[in-house]
Amino acid sequence: WGLALPLFLLLDCARQGVRRRKGTGAAGRYLTDTGAVLWAELGGWNWNGILSKLCVLGILFVVLLLGGKFTFILFSWLNRALEDLHLAAVTALVFVLGIL
Description:
Layout: H1 4-22, H2 33-43, H3 47-82, H4 87-99
């Protein structure tokens, strides 16, 4: 929903204000009937759980993003560390580590 929901509610308040000034809207209400139904539906949601899961997804995104960068750094370091070894030694090392 991002920016769409606050924008919808803001425009709905403006629409209700215009209706009140024209005399066709209900007095004392800030939202139209559609906006009030949406507001009531959103009020029943568990926002604490939703925002907690959103924080976990954000942290997971950052970890995966930094993990991908760390992988390139690790492989660059490994390339430098293994460049002096003979091909047979590197092959044996990869084989042994693969078995473990």
